[in-house]
Structures are given as C-alpha cells and as structure tokens.
Design brief:
Helix content is 41%, strand content 14%. The protein is an alpha/beta fold. It starts with 6 loop residues before the first helix and ends with a helix. Belongs to the class-I pyridoxal-phosphate-dependent aminotransferase family.
C-alpha cells in the first residue's frame, strides 16, 4: 500500500524558486568565514530588553509554567485591549482579543475564521512571504492584487474590486513589509469601501504599527462600520524585539474570537503563561519603550535617504514605515534576483530580491535595516557603488 501526504500540506508553496536562495547562500558564505553583511530578514540587531527577560524569568520561577488560559491570560488580553482602544478610539475589551503564538499564528487563525475550502482570498502584492501559503493552508485560493511602485505601493480600490468577485476576504499589511508603505487614509477608505461593496472580511496585519516614519498609522478597524468586518493581527515581535517569544494576538468581533478560541483549543492550546506575563510587563513600559526599539530603524532610514540623494541610479520606494527600504534597481538593467546574486558575489552584501515578495516587487530589492549604523552605511555605500558600476 502506498502512503501519500495530504494535498493541503504538499501544496502550501508552489514548486520552483521562492527567491530565498540569496538568503541561504549568504548564510552558507558567512558560516564558511566569508565577510558578508546580511540585510535580508526582519530580525532586530538588538535582543529582547533585559528587564523584559527578568520579568519572564520571575514569572517562570514564580510558577507560571503550567497550562495558561487558552484565549490568553486575563492580564494580557486586558492590556492588549486597552492599548488598541487607546490608539484607535474603538471600544475594545478582552472579549475582542485572542492571544496567539506570534503574528503568524494570528494570520493563520484569522484566515481559518473567514475562509472555507475553495474560497477566493485576496492579498496585496508585494506581500510578506507567508501570505499565499497561509491562505492555502486553510484550503482557500490565494489571489494577489497588485500594488504598483508608481503609486507608492498604495493599493487601488478599483484593482481590489476587479478581483473581488466571489472572494471572502482581503489581507492587507500597513506599515508594509516589504515596501515600507504606510497606507494613507484615502487608501484605507478605498479598501473599506471595496470590502463593504463586496461583503469581504478584512484581515489587517499591523505588526509594524510602532515603526512609522512618515504620516500616521490608521487601523482600518477604526473606520466607520469596519469594526464588525475586520480582524487585526498584532504582535510583540517587532514592537518590543520579542521575535523568539512568539506572542501575538487577533482582535475582532466577540463571535469570531469565541470560535477562534475553539480553534486554539484544537491547535496550539495557548501560549506559555510566563511569556504572556513578560508581554504584559513590556506593554506596560509604554510608548517610550517602543520608540527605543524603533529608533535604530529611523536613524538608518535617514542614512539610506542621505546616501540615495547623492546618486541617480537607485531610487527608493517611500519607506514610510517598517524596518526595510525597498530599492528600485531597474536602471541597472538587472532583475531583482540578478542584482541580489551579483551584489552578494561581488560586494559581499545580502539583500532580498523584490520578486521574492511577488510580481509587484519585480525590478526591486528589499534591504533590511538590521545591522548597526556604521555597518549599514558601509553596506548601502557598497550597494550603490555596485549599482553605478553595473549601469556603467
């Protein structure tokens, strides 16, 4: 008898290149002792603050190591709800919050909540790399909606509506990874109108909400009549450099959260209590702690903009938020993948090809601002010199 794996698990990601070969090669080169500056993944160059780790240690030593409440501890759900209510003006209580094992688990839960097998699920392209696979993982059909560089990577209502026939959901991300775009009020109002017109659930990935360099972050849940059709995914990973702690949340209507509690019971069965206690401690440090984590990326964005202003080969996307700069390298005549591979081989700099984030990223590379300032400035200088040489 031949045993086969499920179609669901074997088709999470399609065959062929996923654009991550540069990342893997860079790691291999670094492990072999070669001088490589990695500007690939969104991992802080600082680690979780010692006082947060002390709170985690104290909670664990204090005995909070058994099963925690599956929807999240009352303390963390209350703290997250208060944070969201304060920042958005939308009344929010613990009954609107499910604590998840990081933002990725929150995305998976949100898609499960609103999509059935075979449903069309829209997402904006360029996109964070797990989005299509997360949608396939719940049995839905991922449908990209292109955001164009000439429009600052702001999604267009007409494009969403053109793809919306028969769809159940739309997934957006602002501030955006990989482009750095912060969606304007006009953009979000267009998105809201499209969702209302086509009865779409909106899933809003807001894990970068503390990293805004231009404009303001607006949660679409705060727009008129959107609270009942919006699920917001948040996380401690980017705001507090707690990437490895795996603690995030979904915020949505009470009925949805009730059902997601049932899903969590049958999947993760909650998040460790001592980690949740540390998250409560971290959130209670207030905006100043979040700004301290965000400050290096604000500085490095300024460094990048200063260097870019001195040349005319590479152009930057708006870079209004998040820890990345999306660079338009089309003037070199190379594709994003060609540019990234040659940059690694010839200059020892590892960046992500834009097309690893979808068709909308073609002709671009994404630079993660995740090394200390001097190294980042040196890497950006070498990247721009390489681009100028290639252009001739």
């Amino acid at each position: 008898m031949t045993r086969t794996l499920s179609n669901r698990i074997t088709t999470l990601t399609p065959g062929g290149s996923d654009g991550w070969e540069v990342f893997y090669r860079a790691r291999q080169m670094a492990e072999a002792g070669e001088d490589v500056i990695e500007l690939t993944i969104g991992e802080h160059d600082i680690r979780t603050a010692p006082d947060i780790l002390s709170a985690m240690h104290d909670a664990a030593r204090g005995g909070h190591t058994g099963y925690a409440a599956v929807p999240g501890t009352t303390a963390l759900r209350d703290t997250v709800a208060a944070r969201i209510a304060d920042r958005t003006g939308v009344p929010t209580t613990r009954d609107n919050i499910l604590v998840t094992a990081g933002g990725q688990a929150g995305l998976f839960a949100a898609q499960h909540a609103v999509c059935d097998e075979g449903d069309r699920a829209l997402f904006i392209d360029p996109y964070y790399t797990t989005y299509p696979g997360t949608i396939r993982g719940v049995g839905a059909l991922p449908v990209p909606v292109l955001a164009r560089p000439e429009q600052g990577f702001q999604p267009n209502r007409a494009d969403i509506e053109a793809a919306a026939h028969g769809a159940k959901s739309l997934l957006i991300n602002t501030p955006n990874n990989p482009t750095g775009a912060v969606y304007s009020r006009a953009t979000l109002e267009g998105i809201a109108a499209a969702c209302a017109a086509h009865d779409l659930w909106l899933i809003s990935d807001e894990v970068y909400d503390t990293q805004v360099w231009e404009g303001d972050h607006l949660s679409p849940r705060a727009l008129p009549d959107m609270a009942d059709r919006t699920l917001v995914v948040g996380s401690m990973s980017k705001s507090h450099a707690m990437t490895g702690s795996r603690v995030g949340w979904v915020c949505g209507p009470e009925e949805v959260i009730d059902h997601l509690l049932n899903l969590a019971t049958h999947t993760t069965y909650g998040v460790p209590g001592y980690i949740q206690d540390a998250a409560v401690f971290a959130l209670n440090q207030g905006v100043a702690a979040e700004e301290k984590v965000a400050a290096p990326f604000r500085r490095r964005r300024a460094i990048a903009h200063d260097l870019l202003a001195r040349q005319n080969t590479v152009r930057a996307a708006p870079a209004q938020g998040a820890m990345y700069v999306m660079l338009d390298i089309r003037a070199t005549g190379l594709s994003g993948s060609e540019f990234a591979h040659r940059l690694l081989d010839e200059a020892g700099i590892a960046v992500m090809p834009g097309d690893s984030f979808g068709a909308g990223g073609a002709g671009h590379v994404r630079v993660a601002m995740t090394v200390e300032d001097a190294a980042f400035e040196a890497a950006m200088t070498r990247l721009l010199d390489f681009a100028a040489t290639v252009r001739g």
